Amino acid sequence: MKRRHIETLLLLAPAVIFLGLAFVAPLARLFSLAFTDEAGMFSTFSTLIDSEVYRRVMVNTFLVAFAVALITVLLAWPVAYILTRLKGFWFAFALYGVLFPFWISVLVRTFSWMILLERNGPLNRFLINIGITDKPLSLLFNDTGVMIGMVHVLLPYAILPLYGAMLRIDQRLLLASDGLGAGLFDTFRRIYFPLCLPGLVGGATFVFLLSLGFFITPALLGGSNAITLSMLIASFINDRLAWSLAAAGSLILLVIVLALLAVTARFLPFGKGVYAR
Amino acid sequence: MNRGLPLRFAAAAKSYGEVQALKPTDLEVRDGEFLTLLGPSGSGKTTLLNLAAGYLEPSGGRIFIGERDVTDLPARRRNIGMVFQNYALFPHMTVAGNVAYGLTVRRRPRDEIARRVAAALAMVRLEEYGSRRIQELSGGQQQRVALARAIVIEPDVLLMDEPLGALDKQLRRQVQLELRRLHEEHRRTTIYVTHDQEEALVLSDRVAVMRDGRIEQLGSASDLYDKPVNAFVAGFIGESNLLPAKVTSLEGGEANVAIGAFAQNATVPAADGLNPGDDALLLIRPEHVRIDREGLAAEITEVVYLGELTAFHLRLAGGATLWGRQITNQALQRGMPVKVSWERAAARIVPKD
């Protein structure tokens, strides 16, 4: 073996050993639990899939994650676009506005939303005062609350890749399209949008995958009325001590996530830029 | 056959705050003409091109394509073909997709698009490349795709912004000849921007030499070379020796000048704006400097072998220096004392800047 290879191995070793002992091994142990139920090797999976309630939780988790990804991307688009147009102070201001939430604990942000969305909270009082509704809307402890909270937490994950993709677009391509006779809509549909697509798909995938496994925000804002897969897994362990069911649930989640990543990976700007200049 | 329309700038100007990128400029590009805007960077040539394209709004003046006042029209309504310096090809489309773009957005029927795209690709000799991705092409091929994309829409005016800037020298020569062939076949009104004087001379019917946001001189290649209006044009087109001279008298289109460096007087064609008593510059092209049996005493201080030609640098007895050029002759050696003469009929005077 060449010296260079030994050096590489030595440099990687601490991190690899740590991850192996503290992450891979426990994960393997957890997943092996999924197959150790007394009723049979795959009984945990059939329990999860046969139960009407568990199926509904899984479907609901996916619907919420899908809705969150969609809303997040729609909200992220204009913000990312404006970021590419701003310069100097206002650019820095807007960028910090996007990044600032990263530096505040998710727990703190979720509790803040609980206060804002309460039955008699500021948002409901405001809506009543301006006459949009006469009785308070129930914004908390249901899917609405979960989605509001998750969209807020996950928005930067959609804005940043989209902003990156927009920034990489050569402005001369838009001029060229204009010069060739394309109207604004054609230029958007045929040039700008397709070139944003890697960032869009990347951002949407991040948000979707993170939503699937989100725990704190749905647990606090959704409560028992909007149970997600991660809350179900937590309850298997905390309430029922059913480790094998929790393991099976985690494994299902992981497999779905990996499958999705495989599909979208070809859009993601991993490694070389997809449309590098 | 001319396929194109004349393009006219009427006092077109562009300023950014206090900075005048283009001073009010009148220029008429004739239909079917190949006109080059030549100048150093910051001379306003690209500004003028972008005004023609509609990518910039003029701060004053009007722009006409044919009879139509296009000043207030965006680029997409002007029916122009633009070739960008970096080509600006759409990276997510094939070669054929790029070339078809202008027709697709004009909602032409599918079979017409296919036919015209094939013809345009054949014209730039890329018939086989329609289904390739842009990233798979070489720089020269990308340049030809950009040209095909601009031409396929039958533009009234073809605009090119330093389209050969990114190519290496040998390829540039080849593409220059290709561009000239295409222009001779199709005679499309063309405005071409470059800072390369040789490119301008090879390609153009007329050249506009620009400096500091204005056109210094407009004319054919030989006009610019033989009758430059000032020292800037003389220096920008070809190589030149410029020697201080004083106009002593004017007589029937001719000027008598005193040339201090030569301690001589000479008679040369008069130039606009030069009156008796004015300081001027005498322009002698290197090919008009001769090493002779008679003439001014000089010493060869440098000999540069250029293949067919040899350039030599001379120091005259009075201290002035001259570049000369002649068919290669092994006899020339550095340090050799020689006699120098110059072709009086070919010399010109230009105003001192």
Protein described:
- The complex is a heterodimer of chains A (277) and B (353).
- Chain A has 277 residues and is an all-alpha fold.
- Chain A folds into 2 domains: 33 residues, no CATH class; 222 residues, MetI-like (MetI-like fold, Orthogonal Bundle), CATH 1.10.3720.10.
- In chain A, α2 packs across α12, α5 packs parallel to α10 and α11 packs antiparallel against α12.
- The relative contact order of chain A is 0.13.
- Chain B has 353 residues and is of the alpha+beta class.
- Chain B folds into 2 domains: 225 residues, Rossmann fold, CATH 3.40.50.300; 113 residues, OB fold (Dihydrolipoamide Acetyltransferase, E2P) (Beta Barrel).
- In chain B, strands 6-7-8-3-9-10 form a 6-stranded mixed sheet, sandwiched between helices. Chain B has a 5-stranded antiparallel sheet with strand order 13-12-11-14-20, with no helix packed on it. In chain B, strands 15-19-16-17-18 form a 5-stranded antiparallel sheet, with no helix packed on it.
- In chain B, β12 and β13 form a beta hairpin.
- The longest helix of chain B has 18 residues.
- The mean pLDDT of chain B is 90.
- The chains are: A mainly alpha (277), B alpha+beta (353).
- At the A-B interface, α8 and α9 of A face β6 and α2 of B.
